[in-house]
């Protein structure tokens, strides 16, 4: 087109020959004006303007960066944000020439001059980190809990006592009208006779596990049963997340896959469905048994004497108060005034009559130094085994 125009042909005629608009011919003629045809760049050009109308000037942008450096080194207050820079510009330019706060912020971000506070995401501590031998995979731990306030049509409220192994594949759930302490004891014995004894058994601070809270120095029947079998009971701290994650995760799984999945006419039918689910779930996790620590077999000659003084250890996980004290077994213990609102592991040594307090930090799970050791003598008195409330007990198969 340009060559024909340069030969003297009218631009309208050229446009008619190439079936384009006159404006197209004029644009390419203007592009090649004053140049040899071989030297003209015929590539498409961006239609965007070479300069944005509201773009800040390069000189002002450099000045903003320089002002930030001056405020950081020589500023009295040390403020280097967009507002401080804008206040400085008001003394140098007219009001209409000073850019806004967002514009100054974009200039600082474009030049990498923002002090960004990036959230530090630390790795979660290993499972059972509050017990070193458990975290190392050298000792088995069973976690227990009770699912409450489930309602069955035509039956009313009922409860489910659940068990879950931390390292192995052990899992069990026992529905009952009331998961009383007697029911829990029978379930524990049936479970441990089948799978073997763990090193630790973890519970929450429910009275059916720990014992009554209305009197000091109380070790309930579940604690005494564990100690007689040389199983160390562990009690998770109240209102703390993470410590009961294993058993709470299993509780949610059981409710989704057993309770909410289908309709159950009776509690016996629910128990049968729960037994089928837990058997299949243990089979699903059978590969975990290869790496789980070994368990002790249940002693065949074991007999429980409720009046025998308890021996062994009881572990309580607690959080200190603002003064570094811990309420434990009905007493207030002064652990460390410099360790306020922090986690501690309290090991009640009934054999040596002491309580050892260890520091716990999720950031440093491997560092658990001893904070304090206090004397404690468990009182020797007759243990009352009579249940406070009588409820029908569902037999444990």
Radius of gyration: 38 Å
Highest-level CATH class of the domain at 132-310: Alpha Beta
Order of helix and strand elements from N to C terminus: HHHHHHHEEEHEHHEHHEEEEEE
Q: Largest sheet at a glance?
A: 9 strands, mixed
Report the principal-axis shape. elongated
Please give the count of helices.
12
Mean pLDDT: 90
Q: Structural class of the secondary elements?
A: alpha/beta
Strand arrangement, largest sheet?
3-2-1-4-5-6-9-10-11
Which homologous superfamily in CATH is the superfamily of the domain at 132-310?
Answer: Ribonuclease H-like superfamily/Ribonuclease H
How many E strands? 11
CATH topology of the domain at 132-310: Nucleotidyltransferase, domain 5
- Indicate the proportion of strand residues: 15-25%
Poorly predicted sequence stretches spanning 5 or more consecutive residues: none
The CATH architecture assignment of the domain at 132-310 turns out to be 2-Layer Sandwich
Proportion of residues in helical segments: 25-40%
Tell me the distance between the termini. Answer: 97 Å
